[in-house]
Amino acid sequence: MAHLAIESVSKLFGTTFAVNDFSLEVGDGELVCLLGPSGSGKSTLLRMIGGFERPSGGTIRIDARDVTNLPPERRPTGMVFQSHALWTHMDVFNNIAFGLKLRRLPKSEIRARVENALDMVGLADYGRRMTTQLSGGQQQRVALARSLVLEPKILLLDEPFASLDQHLRERLREEVRDIQQRLGITTLFVTHGQDEALALADRIVVMRDGRTEQIAPPSTIYRQPQTAFVAGFIGSMNFVQSRTRNGVCDHPLFPLAVPVDDGPVTLATRPEALTIRPSDRADAARVHRIVDFGTHKMVDVDLADGSRLKAMVAPDDRIEAGMKVEPSFTSFFVFRDNTLVHQGAPARTSAELGRLLPV
Ligand code: ADP
């Protein structure tokens, strides 16, 4: 078990910050996902923690010890890469045993530890196979075992399952979570897949342009996004541009009491917070398309102003394409300049709204 502290770490490539004044503490046994679009600095940050890249500034500590300038082999970290680079001229056993042999451990101990690692990743009978005879998922398991066998204090995983199909990816990430919890190993997991982060993490760090947008547990990231970027990156979100005047949004469909200064705002609401019901109004919205996912239907609704919203409805909902509908919603977020300025539920009655609308 180990505690990791990243203090104001930056990495410059030329004149571009890949990581910019980044700080994070990861507790004993915690699994933190670094989530963000391609190019947001996730890999660079992980490589600096593993010692494969030297920071331009800042400090990295593991259990209070400054490891910022130590080479990888002198850090208590183990890294699993997306391209696992297994040795093709060695069998599985020797791939995993390699690091232990470098440490000159007794043969009997090497055997015991490799067998234990193989067992942990579900490959107990595969020791004598050549790595070229393994499937992609099995190769990734060997790569994981190769790291685990060295008993690192901190496990670093850089999109380890990105090249695998979805079912296998889901299975392997569950296995990783099981192993990680069983060993209580402090773990950082880089991914650009929100599902992966939501399924795995104790906490998620959403990154953008080398900086942190938000650090929080998955449910908080989903329910209380602090920026419009996080709101749009995690899950599905409807955005509507509007303005506030005298504490009310002036969007014709969504006149809402919003206690912020006059000016432009972005309204956001999740598809599951949006309900639609048939309407006869001339300016009603119209159902454009319905996709049936089995567990729910996703409905694209075109508003009179040309914008499109997504609403999630029950699988047995009788909604049809072309129908005129009136959307309403149960909760919403308001952002200004990317920052959350208000979160709430709309006023319930038209009388309430009437009182709110400026005359
Ligand atoms: P992510 O893992 O989120 O996709 P990276 O950490 O790989 O992001 O990259 C962050 C930024 O740093 C990108 O703009 C990338 O082009 C740049 N970058 C990464 N590695 C290098 C390098 N060795 N030389 C120059 N630029 C790099």
Tally the structural domains. 2
Encode the helix/strand succession as letters: EEEHEEEHHHEHEHEEHHEEEEEEEEEEH
Level-2 CATH architecture of the largest domain: 3-Layer(aba) Sandwich
- Biggest pleated sheet: 6 strands, mixed
CATH homology superfamily of the largest domain: P-loop containing nucleotide triphosphate hydrolases
**Poorly predicted tracts of residues:** 353-359
Q: Roughly what fraction of the amino acids lie in strands?
A: 25-35%
Approximately how much helix is present in the residues?
Answer: 25-40%
Bound compounds, each kind once, are: adenosine-5'-diphosphate
Count every beta strand, where a strand is a DSSP E run of 2 or more residues: 20
Total of helices: 9
Over the alpha carbons, how many angstroms does the gyration radius reach? 25 Å
CATH topology of the largest domain: Rossmann fold
Structural class: alpha+beta
Q: In the CATH hierarchy, what is the class of the largest domain?
A: Alpha Beta
Shape: elongated
How are the strands of the largest sheet arranged?
6-7-8-3-9-10
Could you outline the blueprint of secondary structure elements for this entry?
Elements lengths: L3 E10 L2 E11 L4 E5 L6 H9 L6 E6 L2 E2 L10 E4 L11 H11 L4 H14 L15 H13 L5 E5 L7 H18 L2 E6 L2 H7 L2 E6 L2 E6 L1 H6 L4 H6 L4 E8 L2 E2 L13 E7 L4 E5 L6 E8 L4 E6 L5 E6 L10 E6 L2 E5 L2 E6 L5 H7 L3
Parallel strand pairs: 3-8, 3-9, 6-7, 7-8
Antiparallel strand pairs: 1-2, 1-4, 4-5, 9-10, 11-12, 11-13, 13-19, 14-18, 15-16, 15-18, 16-17, 19-20
Helix pairs in contact: 2-3, 2-4, 3-4
The site of adenosine-5'-diphosphate (ADP) has 10 residues, from helix 1.
